[in-house]
Specification:
This protein has helices at 6-11, 30-33, 70-88, 133-138, 158-163; strands at residues 2-5, 17-19, 41-46, 50-54, 59-62, 94-101, 107-114, 128-130, 147-156. By secondary structure, the chain is of the alpha/beta class. The strands form 3 sheets. The protein has a 4-stranded mixed β-sheet with strand order 8-7-6-9. Strands 2-3-4 form a 3-stranded antiparallel β-sheet, with no helix packed on it. The two termini are 41 Å apart. 15% of the residues are buried.
Length: 165
């Protein structure tokens, strides 16, 4: 079943989404299946041809109204970065973040490297590699990766990772 955020659903033009209101008494088993359709949200999609998806049968809507917007996450990243840099007076090597997967819309914690070499002793702890803080911020917007950054927990240095092992 396809998962769609409420904001994505609402951004679909009105001609391609709506509420099922048409009674289909021409179908022999309509009385039995009526509740699966009536009053449910619908959307037209192109998936190997144009088709109508019905909420609960072909797609699920996930309410994203409480999620942080990309600009809020960018601000959070900047605040954590400034806090780290003002205390350490050195550039961080990684950021601990919360990521959201596009396909499942589920979140998890992940460590993202910033200007840190791969193939080191802690490589298994690194989820993704960025070249700069601006690259990290760009991951808050939907792009070519299959995830976005949904939150920032803080920054750290590579030496700190080695001390914890």
């Amino acid at each position: 079943m396809r998962k769609v955020t409420l904001s994505e659903y609402n951004s679909i033009p009105d001609d391609y989404r709506g509420i099922w209101t048409v009674e289909r008494w021409d179908l022999p088993n309509w009385a039995e299946i009526r509740e699966q359709y009536m009053g449910k949200r619908t959307m037209m999609v192109y998936d190997k041809g144009t088709c109508l998806l019905v909420e609960g049968l072909g797609f699920e809507i996930v309410d994203d109204s409480a999620w942080k917007k990309p600009d809020e996450v960018k601000k959070e990243i900047s605040e954590h970065y400034l806090n780290f840099y003002s205390k350490q007076v050195i550039e961080p090597h990684y950021a601990d973040c919360i990521i959201r997967w596009y396909d499942t819309l589920e979140t998890e914690e992940a460590r993202i490297a910033l200007a840190m070499d791969s193939n080191n002793e802690k490589d298994d702890e690194i989820f993704f590699y960025c070249d700069s803080i601006n690259d990290l911020k760009s991951l808050t917007n939907k792009g070519k990766e299959d995830f976005t950054i949904a939150g920032c927990l803080g920054f750290g240095r590579y030496a700190e990772l080695l001390q914890t092992s």
